[in-house]
Amino acid sequence: MRLLGWLGLLFGLTASLTAPATALDREAFTIIRYDLEVRLEPGQQRLGARGKITLRNDSGQPQRVVALQLSSSLNWRSIRVDGKAVQFVSQPYLSDIDHTGALSEALVTLPAEIKPKDSVEVEIGYEGVIPLDGTRLTRIGVPEEIAKHSSWDQISPSFTAVRGAGYVAWYPITTASADFSEGNSLFEVVDRWKAREAGSEFRARVTMSRESGESPPLMICSPGGQRLIGAMDRAQQVSAECSWTRLDAVTPTFAMANYHDQSKPPFYLFSLPGHEAGAATYSNAVEPAAKFVSEWFGPPSAPVAIADFADPNSAPFESGTLLMASMAAQDSKLAGTNVVHELVHSALPSSRPWVYEGLAHFAEAMYRQQQGGRQAALDLLGLHRAAFLDSEKEVSAALRKNGEQTVVEPKIVEQKNVEQKIVGQPLAGTFDETYYRSKAAYVWWMLCDMVGDDALKQAIRKYRAEDDNNKDPKYVEHLIEAAAKRDLSWFFDDWVYQDRGLPDVHVQSAHRWKTENGLQIVTVTLENLGTAGAEVPFTIICEGGDITKRIEVRAKGIAITRVELPGTASEIVVNDGSVPESDLTNNVFKIPASSN
Ligand SMILES: [Zn+2]
Question: Does the reported pTM lie above 0.70?
């Protein structure tokens, strides 16, 4: 696949004689501003767009050629700079960043070289169709039936839902080829893209004119600006505005269907006929979820929308404060945590993915705890563990091998063309979902265990997205330290600013003894074989009642404590699952009888 991609590139360069002989740097330009008018014709599955984009040269070299890419089912119609048509060569470019597994690439020769940091405005026009297409999955062997549940994007007369870059390039992107079959390459290309475009401004007005015989559909765009939801107006057209002053981790998405509107602003709920019971489950979840979220995170600051799928097996998707999830089934637990998640996004905007998503996933677990106890919450968190375990084990292994305690900038272990395989990701700056969702959920949970609900609530309520900037890179740490009156720099170093892998805590020894006045005591030595420190809970199984304590064990360190017992202790269990460890097989320790 990659080979074909390069052949395509070579062909393109041969055809475009003005292109430089040096390799084209597809990621040289960042699109820093989008301003698009998009028209849909669902009957023909068509999309047509025109508008302006602003490109900034983020490379170190002057650039004359830019590679603008769209989904391969869309075609470039016109590209103009300063009101004049510019020369471009259009070609297919294989890449799994799009659901079709390929892009329509325009190699554009700009009228003049663009110097590093300089920008150029380009007028564009393109059109084509967006049918259901699972090619990027089916060609690596995923059965079509399963592929369509994950690749559900389409424009169609009955149901339209289209996600942006990473799913369907319905607006231009500038990326290197991504390949599903090569490990993480696709995710690396998408993560790089998101990081490059985080500060970009995006505006698209999506419009559909009425077609004869159709009942008026509702149109939804990822909430973020005004008029996120449109209904048919007197001019017989429906439109929605998708706009953000900064994209951050948002994926611009639009949906259109004969939705039943059960919205109670700022909470918008759109369900499809036949899913009334499931929609009611969501509707009923709103009030208790909103109460919980406002206690922890404050009142909502932006509209939240949850929209149904026509196919009940479609994989759920969220972007910003829009969640798409099937309402075909009645699952009140899932509805509750889903609503909590979106409400947290509304209450706590942030440009830091680990704060924005991490807190939303943490809140799901806290809500589950409120309803079903700590174990229920830890079970929910446990579903996240596998997501980052393997890559963190790699980090731990690399750190152990280097024999140093103080790594670590992300380390590039492989460099090939523009692709870099990075081992380890500091949470503070990552655009990798497994980190900013799954690892971050654990980090917030551990912080909460360490400082307590009240201190963490206090810190969260003081959080302001506009203050979380590069002026104080330790802003979040300082908020929590001030509320908890506790030094947390070691924790933030190991878990947030650096990636130091995971802890691996076990009981090194336990000795029982009696004081002069007959009190039973056990001296416990815990050892952390891992490369990140943690405060872990441990429980002493004891006649007369189990005792749970918490203790800080730094990376490669030991911690010793004495615990008074109500009776004879038999066993010590380290970590109830709240601390992600690289090895959970060494967490139960039998206290030897001879230690009496
Ligand atoms: Zn989220």
Answer: yes
**Does residue 415 register a pLDDT over 80?**
no
Q: Kindly give the distance from the C-alpha atom of residue 103 to the centroid of ligand 1, in angstroms, as a whole number.
A: 28
- CA 79 to chain CA mean position, Å: 33
For residue 9, the one-letter residue type is: L
Q: Where are the alpha helices (DSSP H) in 139-229?
A: 144-150, 185-197
How many A from CA of 342 to the centre of ligand 1?
6
Quote the ligand 1 centre to 318 CA distance (angstroms).
Answer: 6
Residue 427 near residue 501, CB atoms below 8 Å? no
* Structure confidence by residue, pLDDT tens digits, 53-71: 999 999 999 999 999 999 9
Alpha carbon of 3 to those of 179, 293, 520, 585: distances in Å? Answer: 11, 50, 71, 44
Measured in Å, residue 227 CA sits from the centre of ligand 1 at 21
What is the 437 CA–ligand 1 centroid distance (Å)? 8
Contact 203, 242 (CB under 8 A): yes
The b/e string for 385-394 (b: 16+ C-beta within 10 A; e otherwise) is: bebbbebbbe
Give the distance (Å) from ligand 1 centre to CA of residue 583. 29
Q: How far is the CA of 361 from the centre of ligand 1 (A)?
A: 7
Residues in contact with 572: Cβ distance below 8 Å, sequence separation at least 6, in sequence order: 507, 510, 524, 538, 539, 540, 541, 588, 589, 591
Distance from residue 317's CA to the centre of ligand 1 (Å): 9
- How do residues 450-462 score in pLDDT, each as one tens digit? 999 999 999 999 9
Segment (H or E) for 384: helix 374-402
How much distance in Å is there from the Cα of 401 to the middle of ligand 1? 36
Least confident window among 82-86, 229-233, 390-394, 498-502: 229-233
**Whole-number Å distance between alpha carbons of 23 and 468:** 38
- Residue 180 confidence (pLDDT) above 80: no
